[in-house]
UniProtKB/TrEMBL annotation, chains A, B:
Transmembrane segments: none annotated. This is Transcriptional regulator, BadM/Rrf2 family. InterPro entries: Tscrpt_reg_Rrf2, WH-like_DNA-bd_sf, WH_DNA-bd_sf. GO terms for cellular component: cytosol. Pfam families: Rrf2. GO terms for molecular function: DNA-binding transcription factor activity.
Amino acid sequence: MMINSRLAVAIHIMVLLASNPRETVSSEWMAGSVNTNPVVIRRIMGMLRKAGLLTSSAGKTGAELTKDPSDITLLDIFKAVEPKDELFSIHEKPNPACPVGRNIQSALDLTFTRVQTAMEEELRSQSLQDVMNMLSPKSIQ
Amino acid sequence: MMINSRLAVAIHIMVLLASNPRETVSSEWMAGSVNTNPVVIRRIMGMLRKAGLLTSSAGKTGAELTKDPSDITLLDIFKAVEPKDELFSIHEKPNPACPVGRNIQSALDLTFTRVQTAMEEELRSQSLQDVMNMLSPKSIQ
DNA sequence: TTTGATTGTCACTAAAATGGTGACAAATGG
DNA sequence: CCATTTGTCACCATTTTAGTGACAATCAAA
């Protein structure tokens, strides 16, 4: 399955922002914690900003969460960083002359929607605060 | 999210095999129903065969399911066609000198495992027969 | 105001995944 | 024997992803 690490990095960024004073969390500094390039951090921050999860501006170090970590779900973050949030795709144009081909798309659509919903509900059930609580108390500076 | 259509095509193949006499379901014929190249069908059939979901052999038209459709779950098919079945990946080597970087991986691992489990349980709850029942009776020849 | 640091964004790259395609040996069955 | 089919390989174009350098615009501190 095609997978990327954007959700993981986005959560990492959000935890850093929630756990540290603004002046300390430059994209360079976050890149050091995540172990990647600062541009990757800014790119993902841009998606989180467009989704309204944080505010930041050119020239000003760091960013700020717009909500309390307990009011931000992992589904919020997932949808922010995954423009195409569909888990599975259905093959195009199955043969309408075949009884199976003619009806398979709607059946698969129902099926895949249920799977997608199950995944999203689990993401919705976990908040950013929940993730932070899994880190040792020392990580919350 | 990067997504492929292998699960959709694999389910389509399995439905065709379950619904038609063996002599009629050549890879060429199935390719016609799915609307793709016969090699794509054979490639996915190869994965299903390795997973023990069907039997087929060179020179012999078609394939046969090894189990009753009601005993085959969509999770079985998913695992057959997705060698890397992990939904999300975690970024490599976060900085151990950072309190967040040091602990984020295990937290994300717990989190992502719960999401993955939710998805797999939903896939496990649906059988191939369930999908076939969603198609019109006419499609079961 | 000047200077240095930072963000936002662009363009480019390499790597990987995916699906389509042609080719062909091996096996099947008439 | 011979036409058909499977299993498999190699190759290709497309897409996605993450890393990187570059740079204008902005900010903040001296």
